[in-house]
Write a structure and sequence with these properties.
Distance between the termini: 38 Å
Shape: elongated
Number of strands: 0
Strand content: under 5%
Number of helices: 10
Helix content: over 70%
Structural class: mainly alpha
Largest sheet: none
Radius of gyration: 27 Å
Length: about 260
């Protein structure tokens, strides 16, 4: 569980509720079922007009990734590639075949299999970059879908407000209903703003950050695989790959392997 996302979600709602009470209101004042249908239901149905049913349903699983900790293990990947480079230098490229099946990272596996098969370096780079690009395009489509929902929700909130105002204007003779009707009309805009600014846009930002981390990891693996294929000195590979790491992690690996 990603504690940052959990604390942000609970803390955000807590701040909203505290603001309600400290301003003299109550939670019940801000609950309106028709506004939920208009803002949440309406904006989600609009997504169905633009995306497939499978994608619209799958979006909730993607949003759930915001609450899962993704362990990319960059330092461990660098260590593994360094060890494989040493093995290849001592025993030859073909010696890697016996350890490839034991690797946890499928992307690294596929790259090293190409190396063992004697594939040209340029072809290896192209194939691995194609897979990376496909991943980026897939992630970008989900992010675009979340962004679309974040834009639709306030729009449906405003639509609900206009709809409520029209109903109010048609019943101006009943002055006792003007205040309550106005409040209900504004709630839809309120819901739309919460969905866009508190939920969807921040979640999209977190998912984009995870995509960037995974992209960086795969770029690092591509460089490592090609370095092994080229027969580079393991120390050179270490210098190449640690440039992708945070300074503290880089120093730890340089101190561990770079001073043998």
């Amino acid at each position: 569980m990603d504690l940052g996302s959990l604390i942000g979600l609970i803390g955000g709602f807590a701040c909203i509720i505290l603001a309600m009470y400290t301003s003299g209101g109550q939670v019940g004042t801000y609950i309106d079922v028709p506004s939920v249908f208009m803002t949440i239901g309406g904006s989600y149905c609009a997504l169905l007009l633009n995306y497939s049913l499978k994608e619209a349903i799958g979006l909730f699983s993607i949003l759930g990734k915001c609450f899962r900790v993704e362990e990319f293990g960059e330092s461990k990947i660098v260590e593994k590639l360094y060890e494989l480079a040493e093995k290849a230098r001592r025993e030859g490229i073909l010696s890697l075949e016996e350890v490839i099946a034991e690797l946890d990272d499928k992307f690294m596996q596929s790259g090293l299999r190409l190396v063992v098969d004697g594939t040209d370096a340029e072809i290896i780079r192209n194939l691995m970059e194609n897979e990376l690009n496909a991943m980026n395009e897939r992630h970008a489509r989900w992010l675009k879908m979340i962004d679309a929902w974040a834009k639709l929700a306030p729009g449906f909130g405003m639509l609900g407000t206009v709809q409520g105002l029209i109903a109010m204007m048609k019943n101006l003779e009943d002055k006792s209903r003007i205040g309550p009707n106005m409040a209900v009309a504004l709630i839809t805009t309120y819901y739309g703003a919460i969905m866009a600014n508190f939920l969807l846009t921040p979640m999209m930002g977190k998912l984009a950050a995870k995509d960037a981390m995974e992209t960086r990891l795969r770029e690092m693996i591509i460089e490592g695989v090609l370095s092994i294929q080229a027969g580079d000195n393991p120390r050179i590979l270490l210098v190449k790959l640690t440039s992708y790491l945070e300074p503290a992690d880089k120093k730890e690996l340089i101190d561990k392997y770079g001073k043998d």
